[in-house]
Write a structure and sequence with these properties.
Length: 98
């Protein structure tokens, strides 16, 4: 994912990752190097922890890269590599006292 941060708009990418968050307009995927949003303009059809492949073009919203709703996404039927396993992520909970 790191290389996507410095890419240009409308560049085609193919990544594998796990769904780590669902939102009312999409979801967030982690590939072991970083996180990226998949914008759907609707609810996510995936469950947290599902291992997926995304192929599509990158656009930027508020300076952050995202896949658009036109990306082709499929659920992978293969083991999740340890380096992108959701169980290996640090606790991302924000301390309410901050």
């Amino acid at each position: 994912m790191c290389h996507i941060l410095y890419s240009a708009n409308n560049k085609l990418y193919n990544i594998k990752g796990i769904v780590v968050e669902n939102y009312s307009v999409g979801y967030v995927v982690y590939d072991g190097t970083g996180f990226i949003t998949v914008y759907l303009n609707g609810a996510s059809p995936f469950e947290i922890g599902e291992y997926i492949n995304i192929k599509g073009y990158i656009s930027f919203y508020a300076g952050n890269p995202q896949f658009t709703s036109k990306a082709v996404v499929s659920i992978l039927d293969e083991p999740v590599p340890d380096y992108i396993n959701i169980d290996n992520l640090p606790d991302l909970t924000i301390d309410e006292e901050l």
